[in-house]
Amino acid sequence: MSENFRSIETKFLDKTNRISFKYNGKKYYGYKGDTLASALLSNGVHLIGRSFKYHRPRGIMTCGSEEPNAIVQIGGNGSFTEPNVRATEQEIYEGLEASSQNCWPSVEFDIGGINNFISPVIPSGFYYKTFMWPKKFWYSLYEPAIRMSAGLGKSPTQPDPELYDHNHLHCDVLVVGGGISGIIAASISADNGNNTVLIDDKNSLGGSSIYQNNENFKIDDEISSIWLDKKIKELKNKKNLTIKRRTSLAAFHSYNYLLARENLADHKSLDKRLNKLRQRLWKIRAKKVILATGAIERPLIFNNNDRPGVMLANSVKKYIDYYGVRCGDKNIIFTNNDSAYETAISLNKKGINVSIVDIRNNSSSILVKNAKDAGIKIYWNNTVVNTKGYRKIKSIQIMEMSKDGTNVVGKKTNLPCDNLSISGGWTPMVHLFTQSGGKLKFRDSDQIFLPNTEMSDQISVGSCNGDFELDDVIKNTVSECKNFISTSVTDYDSLKVSCPKQKENKNIWLLPNDKPLGKTKPFLDFQNDSTAKDIKLAMREGFKSIEHVKRYTTTGMGTDQGKLANMHALGIISETAGVKMGSLGTTTFRPPYTPLTFGTIVGRNVGTFFDITRKTPIHEWHKNHKAEFENVGQWKRAWYYPKDGESMHQAVQRESKAARESAGILDASTLGKIDIKGTDASEFLNRVYTNAWSKLGIGKCRYGLMLNEDGMVYDDGVTTRLDENHYVMTTTTGGAANVLSKLEDYLQTEWPELDVWLTSVTDHYATASVCGPNSKNILKKLFPILEFNDGNFPHMSFKNTELDGINCRIMRISFTGEHSYEINIESKYGKSLWEKCMDAGKEFNITPYGTETMHLLRAEKGFIIVGQDTDGTMTPIDLQMDWIVSKKKYDFIGKRSLYRSDTMREDRKQLVGLLTDNPNEILEEGAQIVQDEKKQPIEMLGHVTSSYFSPNLNRSIALAVVKNGKNLKGQKLLVPMKDKTINVTVSDFIFFDSKNERLNA
Amino acid sequence: MLNINFPKIEKKDYPNLELNLVEPIHKLNLRGKNRDFFTKAGRILSIMLPTEPNTSATIKSISALWLSPDEWMIYGKDIDKNLMLSLDSEISKLNLGSVTDVSDQWVLINMRGKNVFEVLSKGSPFDFNKFKDTKNVTVQTLLNHVDVILHQNDTNNLDLFVRKSFSEHLWLWINDSSRSL
Questions:
Q1: Which of residues 598-657 of A touch B (CB under 8 A)?
Q2: Domain residues for A138?
Q3: What is the pTM of this model?
Q4: CATH fold for the domain made of B12-178
Q5: How far apart are CA A700 and CA A719, in angstroms?
């Protein structure tokens, strides 16, 4: 039976709702509203995990997102398991299972604890030096060993069954942080008619003020927490205000674009989460942002300051005042400021034993007077020099400090305790401000970084802006918000606020000790186990910049991103190097502010929605006929149609033979189609294509090559002249959208004088491409009234006709080298058209073929595919397509670049054919081509762009781009592969029917 | 006879959200910018083409959606082949502008109910705060990374146009997003 540390009643927990949960296999109880941390503390559990490097026992240190130690594994081994969850943020639910991380066999006895004993030989940066030699040990020993010990927690091995989504949110004012300043800011904003959103990462609003019951803090003669509670209730009735609890701002990007994660179900038991959203990522666009992110308490840096039971003072206050949990029965508070006295007074009022060690000589604060009056023992001008206790703190040793604070004097005093609450002052949370591009300034008086220059329409209010006393927080928040919202009157203008004022400050980044630094362990970064001596070591090694020290020591590189550590690291560097702290700057604050789950980042873009898919109107037919599909851009294109267990190779061989010997049919609906109208349409085509268009007759088609302004091939396709001022252009499947945008851009910006109108009709038409010697016979059956002789319907021409009364447009064009027709029809009839073609072609063994066969057939003919045989560095001349570049035209896009010395070089990579010496050997696409394997360094001449086995030639063929390829015809080259070198001969890139006899067959 | 096939989209009901396929329905793309173009288009359609960005005009059951300063989408049950031919012969053929049949380019899905914008905001970066309270507004935006045209006929009654090839995917996404309403 665990001890009950729940001392007092609290309104923040639902005592009627008792919850059981398991920690390291043992059952405990807490209440609804408890975090895992508060519930464990209420059961007397402090030891939560082991530190990363030295495997030292560690306990709960804080009560929020800055927690460096209490990070646990949630869930068992199933798909719901999640590592690195902060116990201070995880609300308990019925059936919650949590376990310690980074320990084996248990957190109580961890074999890795040996690291603590060998710590003198594994200082910071030892791995950079140690693992350099011997070289062969890297793969066999070092890397496996490092990998085994790396990381915290266990990743789930099964897919995440939970649901996540994304949502966009637009507001006038976003207020980040639901503490007292955030609540006032949100209230002022909403009262002035602004669509306001207030987000806070906790399950209830109010920040630390909501449990501030100290009578010295009053607003309008009410204790501040009572006043604030009323204000929170009033917020709920404000029309313009949306409040999002359990919502943590993850990132603050430029132009007030912010990302926030809302926890919707993490506090619910698994059975209540079934098919419900777990987390949502809000993508927020705010016209104005008010940051009220508060401040976090600083620890103090002294020897062995990391034992379980060493906690931040304000967190101890929250546990007693908010959760009703005492963190110990013999409490000692170690501080350099007055705020920790609030904790002492709270504990004392609940009858809990507490004493104070203060590094200052005195303080005139009313809080200190209250503490003295309450009989709390205060050790002035003392510092803690050591702590004792392995799995939990048992005692501390204190010593008096010298006048200048650099040393300790006198004798050690032992003080028994089971909790040490430490407070080193406060650090404003400026992470989000700096993420947005804001610049910081340094305030010497209390050694903090503060927002200085904003890069977007935003302000920071409250303690994140350096106001730590209640009257300053309220007065300055109201004043800043009035300016920001542009209002002159608010409900908060005449508030009467009273609070203690701190006058005596004393800050020492690294507290003095009676032992030399090398004999102590004063931790800075509790998560990454870096100590003050590591920082000093880094500086001795020559690292001066905070960014370098960070990387050498790993300070601030844990999942808490050094929220507690960074300021002390800066302070120690500044003191050691003798430079002003403000001049050092900070490390970069990168998003996310707290870790995000992958699920939240991905949202619903998983499974079916991983990527967008486009389907042709004939897709269902392909699916019903067992087609395998390939992704082309976002399109799902039929790849090949395996029959009777055929492999892809077998299917492609069958399909391509059928297309050459009788008839094949391809779904070509994916080709981009742009309708072009206007009196300047011909001139427009002259400018965008390399060849001439003015003389193309109505009813004729022409192939065109489009270049970028750099002269490189950008897209290609056949354009048909439908009428005097009317064309339809086809583009590559993947290039359609970009080509349309590019052409529209030219029309709007470069050639506004042209009377040309573009409209995308890609999806309006379905296209069935019928090819092969029997294609004409099939078309004749489908369109009996149409004359298909070469005179009436020659190659590169089109006809408008009807199929069962529905308009069709038939182009006689070919991408296979065969006699071919492309039938275009309104896409709602696409599937029916395809089925008609299949019926009509049955007697000719019409064979549907996919993109793989299409690629093979066109490669036999040496037809390029833009994007496969080109890569943005190929000119038409490189492709040996000089014939398509008009010498007469005044201009076209890319013309000037074709005459640059570099694009005219003879030894550029040029398109060639490759034939392997062994006709059955198929080259790998992408394989490098060389001439001399022995030459060092080996010279890469080019690479294979397309490679197939051609059943029609009964041998392998390949296209390649090779340096000076035009002049290498007949020459032997080498294609080195992993296990062999393949001998090839450079050939013409047209392998089949070089005289184009089959087009008119 | 050739059969007609539309994407696999069937009527669906969710809490405060009703989804319907509205096909077949004629859709035209109109482009032009000179005075004669506006006059002819207005006369034939009996609609003054809207020139205010992101607005629409509706007469009877024909709507004209502003897409850009020189581009409109015309759609509605009252559009027939004769009207299309008339526009083509008096605008395209006379080189006043361009008239293109895009009936099969776009698929029209009607969304109605209080939760329309709840669903849209899951996948669209557009700010619907003002849009949702305004009738006869239109916008071209992205929904789950897919280009769409939205036209609000009435409060919480919206026509969504999506390119046919994307329509089944977007339909699945809309249904997936609606299940968490």
A1: 604, 608-609, 612-617, 620, 634-635
A2: 1-157
A3: 0.93
A4: Gyrase A; domain 2 (3.30.1360)
A5: 9
